[in-house]
Amino acid sequence: MIVTFLKGLKGNMNKSFLFLYRVTAIVVLYGVLFGVGGYLFLQGFYLVNHSWIVPSIVSPSNDAVRQMTSQMVTNKQMLETFTLDRNRLQESLDTMKAQRLELIRLDNDLTSAYRRKSQDDVTAGGDLKELIQEKRQDITKTRPVLNDVTTVEDRIAKDLEAGLITKGDAAIERASLTQLANTYTDNKVAEVLLRDNVREKTTKDIDTLEILSKQADIKSQIVQAAINISIGEQQLASDQKQIDGLVKAMKQIDQSPLYLAVQAQDDVKFAFVPYDNEQGVEVGDAIYDCYLNMIGCRQVGTVKVMFSDEQKVTHPLFKTEVRGFMVQLDLTNLDSAKSKTLFVGHKPLFI
Amino acid sequence: MFETLFIVSVILIVSSGIKYLWALILLAHDPDSLKIKKDYSYSPKVSVLLPCFNEGRVVYDTIASISKSDYPDFEIIAVDDCSKDSSYYWMQKAAADFPNVRVLRNAVNRGKNKSQMTAFRQSSGDVIICIDSDCIFAANTMRELVVCLADPTMGAVGGRVGVKNTNESIVTRFQAFMYFIGFQLYKIPENWSRTVVCISGCLFATRRSILTELEPTLEDRNWFGVPVAEGEDRFMTHMILLHGLGTYINLDAKCWTDVPDTTSKYFKQQLRWRRSAFRDIFLTIRLLPKHIKDLHWNVTFSILMPAFSLLFGAASILFAPKFDPLFWANPLPWAVYIINSIILSIVIGQLAPEQKISHPLLVMAFGAWWLISHFFITILALFTMDAPDWGTRTKKVLEEAI
Question: Is B224 an interface residue toward A (CB < 8 Å)?
């Protein structure tokens, strides 16, 4: 009896288990069937569909935004520093160029003056040489006269003693003789001086050398100034390049979606548009949010701004890297920004 | 979680794959350890049990080939399980054409397992050889099986099953690969410890005493009250191992079978085998803790590793798309397939010229489907454990001209 009861109990338990097992089996197998079917359909859908976009919400406290803010501040500081440096350098260069021009002008004046002086010296030297010859002739002529002075003095003395002439006459005659001797001496001195002048005019004297030395110094300063200007211009070009790069980077940042988030007080809604889905996306296009990512779609906003910068995101299904660009969304239903995908232009399955 | 699951699966599959490397090492360095002691003077009476369902003329060829065996003393008990085609006619014709052939017919369709037991009860041999009704046997096959059972520690012996219709379709070519790998490599380490965990039902030899002991259990196999009709080969092997007896595949005992030639037939066969594998896993969970201390460690390894590899492999296939949907596009598996196919086609051509595979590269493309289908087969098998049928032959309804 007990055995029969136990057999019956076991049979009932088996039946119950089988019932549960079969129900579970139906649920699981149909689940797998629909799951796999749905998965394959979804894969196919996203391969064929070209209107899906991937929404994203960017808040001012977002890490990327904070990083961008920091980057912007750094860029601005660097830009200001480089601009200041460039302006200082430009001023310095202008000064150096003006100084160099002054030095060149001075050098030219010196060269002209030196040339004029040289020409004058050549002329004056020739004239003086002729005068030296004349002076020598005069001295040569005066010498014999001076040789006769003793005789004349003796004659004056004899005439005075003889009373042929008065003392006054004698003094006058003696003064004339002295005057003659002085004149002779003066002529010799003049001849020496003339010779010295001629030497000065026909050879480079100390003064000339000093002038040349000064001119060489000026030329050296001009060359040094040219080198400094060249270095300065290179530095200026480098600074300008840095400035251009920073300006470009700032412009890119200005045009990036994150910049909007930096500027904004609240969250900004964007969407990634893959290049494959690029055609037909324009500002003002309707945005649709769908149930199960494909059906029961309703309009939730429009495309507000299109950005040109390339972005890369992970494909929502295939997990591969996808290239595209961002658009800013103007959403009437803010929750739609949290959807996995949105659709632009039209409902993907028209339902 | 997915990554962890995937890594665990890879570790288990690699662990299971270690068997291939192990087999190669054994073949290269210690081939003698793989050879069993054969006693050709041992020649008890053999009963060949042949359950049949919807095989048509093929069953005649099967009986003919086994009848031409060079073994001195044997009988063939063939049981028709209410075939809907001409099978019974061909069985009767075989009984008329060859000696020692007896043909029985079930009153109702009872499944392979019970048909086999019906044949067993009608048999009188000391050694029982269970065969499939679509196999062709070499003349020395019966002898090669029996001589291994001379060793009293051996409980069951199998043979090498080759593919008869190798180049019939891509599906058959692919199976030729799998059969070759299975018998020539995968079972080698199990042969080394005489602990083969599944001797194919195509060619399964055991002692009457063992089968007598197992008969009630075999007859009573059920899934919560639903009779179990398949996987008796794996079950018997498992039970024999748990009894502490050895199991062995004698590669000199050869037979050739027709493998499923279409994808749908192959799917059904794999589904049946997978159910059988799951039953084995449940049996392992139920009985292994009690027997583990008495078993060779290689039994535990050989039973557990494939089981867990199966489960984790299927789970990883289920979850892999979550983190990499294009993982099937990875070129590495394809490269491995192509290299495998080239090497194996050369090896098979050398070692089994009758099974030389044409278009091996094309066959390996089928391997990708095989891998994917494993996921579905595993899930489907797990949730259709209560399906009693003859697998690939269930829906075969042929009215052949007699």
Answer: yes
Q: Is residue B199 part of a domain?
A: yes
CA atoms within 13 A on the CB side of A154: 4
The total number of structural domains that make up chain B: 2
Cβ atoms of residues A249 and A75 within 8 Å: yes
B22 shares its domain with B94: no
B23 in the same domain as B144: no
**SS3 call for A332:** coil
Distances (CA, A) of A24 to A18, A262, B382: 10, 53, 11
Do B20 and B48 belong to one domain? Answer: no
CB A317 within 8 A of CB A264: no
CA closest to B222 among chain A residues = A14
B46-52 β-sheet, strand order: B101-105, B74-80, B46-52, B127-131, B203-207, B154-163, B246-257, B135-137
Q: B226 contacts in A (CB within 8 Å)?
A: 18
User: What is the DSSP annotation of A212-276?
Assistant: HHHHHHHHHHHHHHHHHHHHHHHHHHHHHHHHHHHHHHHHHHHHSHHHHHHH-SS-EEEEEEEGG
Task: Assess whether B11 and B55 both reside in one domain.
Answer: no
* B323 shares contact with chain A (CB less than 8 Å): yes
Give me B85's structure tokens. Answer: 């085609």
Query: Which phi and psi (to 5°) does residue B249 adopt?
Result: -110, 115
What domain range is B178 assigned to? 33-262
DSSP summary character for residue A170: H
Q: Which two tokens stand for residue B141?
A: 């096959």
Task: Considering only the beta carbons, identify the residue of A22, A28, A318 that sits closest to B325.
Answer: A318
Kindly report, residue by residue over B120-141, the tens digit of the pLDDT.
Answer: 999 999 999 999 988 999 999 9
Q: Are residues B49 and B23 in the same domain?
A: no
Q: What are phi and psi of A285, to 5 degrees?
A: -65, 145
Q: Chain A within 8 Å of B326 (Cβ-Cβ)?
A: yes
- Which residue is closest to B383 within chain A, CA to CA? A25
**CA B17 – CA B191 distance, rounded (Å):** 16
Residue B279 located in a structural domain: no
Cβ atoms of B114 and B87 within 8 Å: the answer is no
At the topology level of CATH, where does A78-235 sit?
Helix Hairpins (1.10.287)
Contact across the interface for A28 and B383, Cβ inside 8 Å: yes
Residues 6+ away with beta carbon under 8 Å from B140: B69, B70, B252, B253
Residues B49 and B151 in one domain: yes
Reported in sequence order, the residue ranges of B203-277 that DSSP labels E, i.e. its strands, are 203-207, 222-223, 226-227, 246-257
Within 8 A of B225 by CB-CB distance, chain A residues are 11, 14-15, 18
In a domain, B149, yes or no: yes
**Residues 6+ away with beta carbon under 8 Å from B119:** B47, B49, B50, B51, B77, B78, B79, B104
Per residue in A187-232, pLDDT tens?
Answer: 888 888 888 888 877 777 777 788 888 889 999 999 999 999 999 9
- B86/B116 Cα distance (integer angstroms): 20
Q: Are residues B18 and B40 in the same domain?
A: no
Helix H or strand E encompassing B137: strand B135-137
Query: Any residues with CB less than 8 A from the CB of A280 and at least 6 apart, and which?
Result: A51, A344, A345
ipTM value for the complex? 0.77
Are B103 and B49 contacting, i.e. CB atoms less than 8 angstroms apart?
Answer: no
d(CA B319, CA B325): 9
* Percent of chain B topping pLDDT 90: 35
Question: Which of B224, B376, B379 faces A18 most closely, judged by CB atoms?
Answer: B224
Neighbour count for residue B52 (Cβ, 10 Å): 29
CATH number at residue B110: 3.90.550.10
Least confident of A106-115, A134-143, B385-394: B385-394
Q: What is the pTM of this model?
A: 0.65
Confirm whether B275 is domain-assigned: no
